Amino acid sequence: MTDYVLPAPALVKLGSVVSLVFGGAFVLMAILISLGFGDTTALTNSPLGSWAIPFWCLAAFLGGALLLITGWGMRKRQPWARPLAVLFWVVNGLLAGVQAVLEARTGTFQFSFLWLGGLGIAAWYFYMKSDVVRYYQELAKKEENERAA
Question: Model-level pTM?
Fold first, then answer.
């Protein structure tokens, strides 16, 4: 068997850069906000009140860390990056659900379905688009061959 792996699809290359940039930005914002930097008026005026700041910081840190790990995995051509890209959108959905439940306790109810679009596109791209599926299958084969050697 050969160790040749197909070149990464263009959107996987772009996705690795975008994931690293946005992941770093989310983590940095979460840290700075949690340390008291920045204007948090919009957060404290939300239906969650003072709970909005720790919730937002946790969500931004978690999402940012997941993006950083995913981007690094894509950059290093790791097959485990594919499910992490989809997991990012699942986590977004869970956080939207938690936020909706917390806001419902205050008498308001908002639920964002934006994450569903991201989840659908990510699932289609990483698990149904033939060239991307073939690329990740090749990566998995290469990793399996390296373990066997």
Answer: 0.86
